[in-house]
Amino acid sequence: MAAEITGRTRPTKLKKQQQRTNNKRKRDDVDIETLEAQVEELDPKATQTNFSDLPLSGPTMEGLKSASFTTLTDIQSKAISLALKGNDILGAAKTGSGKTLAFLVPVIENLYRSQCVGADAGLGAMVIAPTRELAFQIFDVLCKIGRYHNIAAGVVAGGKSFKEEADALARMNIVVCTPGRILQHLSQTAAFSVDNLRMLVLDEADRILDMGFSKDVDAIIEYLPPDRQTLLFSATQTKKVGDLARLSLKDPEYVSVHEKATASTPQNLKQNYIVVPLSQKLDTLWSFITEKSSKHSKILVFLSSTKQVRFVYEAFRHMQPGIPLLHLHGRQKQSVRLDTVDRFRRAKFSCLFATDVVARGVDFPAVDWVVQVDGPEDADTYIHRVGRTARYEREGRAVMFLDPSEEEGMLKRLEAKRVPIERINVRAKKQTSIKNQLQGMCFQDPQLKYLGQKAFITYTKGLHVQKDREVYDLQKYDLEGYAASLGLSGAPRIQFHKADAEEAKRRKNASRSEALADDSDDEDGAVKEKNAVRTKYDRMFERRNQDVLAEHYAKIVGNEDDVEDGAEDEDLFDVKRRIPIDEDVQSLDEDDEGEEIEGPATNGDPTARTINISGASQPLVLDSKRREKLLKSKKKLLKLKDKGSKIVFDDDGTAHQIYELEDEEAFRARGAIDEQRRQFVDAEAERVREADQLDKVAAKEKKKAKREKRKQREREAEGADEEGRVAVGGDKDAMANFIADAGVGSEDEDDEGGEEQPRKKARKWFQRDLPVEEEEVGREIETFDELEAEAAKLLR
């Protein structure tokens, strides 16, 4: 009956949930099998126009539909099919052509089909981007199209708590990261495992594989499993065999959609350049921003260094051009950078001053103008910069400021990359000079002046380290005029290092006299004429301290060229320099422990000398005056002498070591080992018995002496009692005599114990006064019965 009742009960809620989970798994298994069959039948050479033409899962299609992605671009149509089939891809396409979806869709689909989803599945895909802004942008797109999948994804780009990132990494299926931060987690986070990694994606691959990130990428590859799928995407893709070999690509498919095009930039992008001297670039930029048409535009201005971005932003902000200003560079905190990017994206009209940190991949919607005040490093950087506008078939404008010395070389580089660009002129009537305003602001605000000086220094050093010397030649720029355009009264002095490594090494190891001679030939950032007027400030900067450091510095660096040949191949720690000592070194005091100086050492150093110290087995080599002066201290000499050994003396006064071993032959001559052991034990037992007898006799003597001392004390006490009783007189005070006798009795009893009672301490001021009778007795008598007991003791 109980079984029937149990069978008729309704299923619990837990069973329902488990049943729904099992049904869902069955449906997923069926979907995955269907997708696998469709992917195998997919022809990668076929042309697809919509996402619905591809074998994609239901959650992915829902995510694409909710994000309004329906039509495939050229790069997406060619790359997604190959990536779904597991091929390695080298993808190159124009900026704004949808490369992000070209690798995110295959990443999600491949992980879904392999069931590498959920917090327990581990890391399945890694997407590496060169900047934080691009990493967060990729993550935003991933969240939009993968919102219906059960996939855990996150961003690891630095700027946040390392521990929080490490805890989140253990639960991620897809991580979007920057090279430096992910390498730090790979080397330091113990719970971060990449053993199950299936896909590696490098966005802006040419930037990641260049000299700035090459070491980080090489280290990351060492951690990743070799059997993975690798996807590389960029607007200017690399084809270097060395780069491909480093990434362990397996028969990569090269996908390019603009190789046969007439231009490597979008057709709806209008590109121009103007020739303007370096000293007039800020004037031209201000004139452009303050135009009526520009105030209702969205402008992105590229500068070469962080200090320039900060100076131009602060200076223009004080002058109020009439358009909202923003600035962005790599030295800002991550929260500030993300907030600036978000504000510029949402702004309808704004001007953003930025470095190349946003030159690649970052999607700013509806950018009208891209202005390059400072020239790009190369033609590829130019393509990425102008790619921030004219995205997704929108129109855009780009203009570049070129110094007359840069025009010819830069146009050759752009022509080789098939970049169509035209020259335009600046109307002199509309150009406004802000030089006087900047000078007044720098005079009133020392912080702004300091920013201007740093901007000049960083820009000049940037020109000095440019790889393309044909385009950027430091000697051809008007640096004095450029400093004046920043509001500075003069060009700051800059010290450069020679590009030649041997020359730099020679200058580093040169003596002070040679360094002073070479300083006059150094470039200082300003063009100096031979007959230029020298002011008191110039003489102040040229002044040298001739009294304190001159001789000492010359001694330190003067003998570095005397290193023997082949010294570089010696041990890790070799002698960099040796301080010589004079030939007329004063000898040590002859009465100082009896040392004497011998002739020169024969160790190859004629200046070193040896000294014999009494008590030392080895002579000491003196190779410096300081070492010789230290030897004049007797305390130092004791440390150099040989250490003695501790000895003991026997009854005859003969010295012995603390531990001595007996001669083995003499030991064996006395008999067998067992017999000697028995004799030793018997002798020790007899010695212990004798010592015990002596201890007993000594104890008896001590006890006898203590007894005699106690009896003497009793006799003295009895004599004192007799005197006390006589003084009281008869029976007039019988109670006092009784108490006195009781006190003597208690003292005798205590003495019979064999120990002398300690003396009582003196009473303190706060102790109550007791009667004399109570102080003399051993304990206080409180009742009459106790009094009778004490009396009975005395009568015995």
UniProtKB/TrEMBL annotation:
<feature type="region of interest" description="Disordered">
    <location>
        <begin position="500"/>
        <end position="530"/>
    </location>
</feature>
<dbReference type="GO" id="GO:0003724">
    <property type="term" value="F:RNA helicase activity"/>
</dbReference>
<dbReference type="GO" id="GO:0005524">
    <property type="term" value="F:ATP binding"/>
</dbReference>
<keyword id="KW-0694">RNA-binding</keyword>
<dbReference type="GO" id="GO:0006364">
    <property type="term" value="P:rRNA processing"/>
</dbReference>
<feature type="domain" description="Helicase ATP-binding">
    <location>
        <begin position="80"/>
        <end position="255"/>
    </location>
</feature>
<keyword id="KW-0698">rRNA processing</keyword>
<keyword id="KW-0067">ATP-binding</keyword>
<feature type="compositionally biased region" description="Basic and acidic residues">
    <location>
        <begin position="711"/>
        <end position="734"/>
    </location>
</feature>
<feature type="domain" description="Helicase C-terminal">
    <location>
        <begin position="281"/>
        <end position="432"/>
    </location>
</feature>
<dbReference type="Pfam" id="PF00270">
    <property type="entry name" value="DEAD"/>
</dbReference>
<dbReference type="GO" id="GO:0005730">
    <property type="term" value="C:nucleolus"/>
</dbReference>
<dbReference type="InterPro" id="IPR000629">
    <property type="entry name" value="RNA-helicase_DEAD-box_CS"/>
</dbReference>
<feature type="compositionally biased region" description="Basic residues">
    <location>
        <begin position="701"/>
        <end position="710"/>
    </location>
</feature>
<keyword id="KW-0539">Nucleus</keyword>
<protein>
    <recommendedName>
        <fullName>ATP-dependent RNA helicase</fullName>
        <ecNumber>3.6.4.13</ecNumber>
    </recommendedName>
</protein>
<dbReference type="InterPro" id="IPR001650">
    <property type="entry name" value="Helicase_C-like"/>
</dbReference>
<dbReference type="Pfam" id="PF00271">
    <property type="entry name" value="Helicase_C"/>
</dbReference>
<keyword id="KW-0347">Helicase</keyword>
<keyword id="KW-0547">Nucleotide-binding</keyword>
<dbReference type="InterPro" id="IPR011545">
    <property type="entry name" value="DEAD/DEAH_box_helicase_dom"/>
</dbReference>
<dbReference type="InterPro" id="IPR025313">
    <property type="entry name" value="SPB4-like_CTE"/>
</dbReference>
<dbReference type="InterPro" id="IPR014014">
    <property type="entry name" value="RNA_helicase_DEAD_Q_motif"/>
</dbReference>
<feature type="short sequence motif" description="Q motif">
    <location>
        <begin position="49"/>
        <end position="77"/>
    </location>
</feature>
<dbReference type="InterPro" id="IPR014001">
    <property type="entry name" value="Helicase_ATP-bd"/>
</dbReference>
<feature type="region of interest" description="Disordered">
    <location>
        <begin position="585"/>
        <end position="625"/>
    </location>
</feature>
<feature type="compositionally biased region" description="Basic and acidic residues">
    <location>
        <begin position="684"/>
        <end position="700"/>
    </location>
</feature>
<dbReference type="GO" id="GO:0016787">
    <property type="term" value="F:hydrolase activity"/>
</dbReference>
<comment type="similarity">
    <text>Belongs to the DEAD box helicase family.</text>
</comment>
<feature type="domain" description="DEAD-box RNA helicase Q">
    <location>
        <begin position="49"/>
        <end position="77"/>
    </location>
</feature>
<dbReference type="Pfam" id="PF13959">
    <property type="entry name" value="CTE_SPB4"/>
</dbReference>
<feature type="compositionally biased region" description="Acidic residues">
    <location>
        <begin position="585"/>
        <end position="598"/>
    </location>
</feature>
<feature type="compositionally biased region" description="Acidic residues">
    <location>
        <begin position="746"/>
        <end position="755"/>
    </location>
</feature>
<dbReference type="InterPro" id="IPR027417">
    <property type="entry name" value="P-loop_NTPase"/>
</dbReference>
<comment type="function">
    <text>RNA helicase.</text>
</comment>
<keyword id="KW-0690">Ribosome biogenesis</keyword>
<feature type="compositionally biased region" description="Basic residues">
    <location>
        <begin position="10"/>
        <end position="25"/>
    </location>
</feature>
<feature type="region of interest" description="Disordered">
    <location>
        <begin position="684"/>
        <end position="779"/>
    </location>
</feature>
<feature type="region of interest" description="Disordered">
    <location>
        <begin position="1"/>
        <end position="31"/>
    </location>
</feature>
<dbReference type="GO" id="GO:0003723">
    <property type="term" value="F:RNA binding"/>
</dbReference>
<keyword id="KW-0378">Hydrolase</keyword>
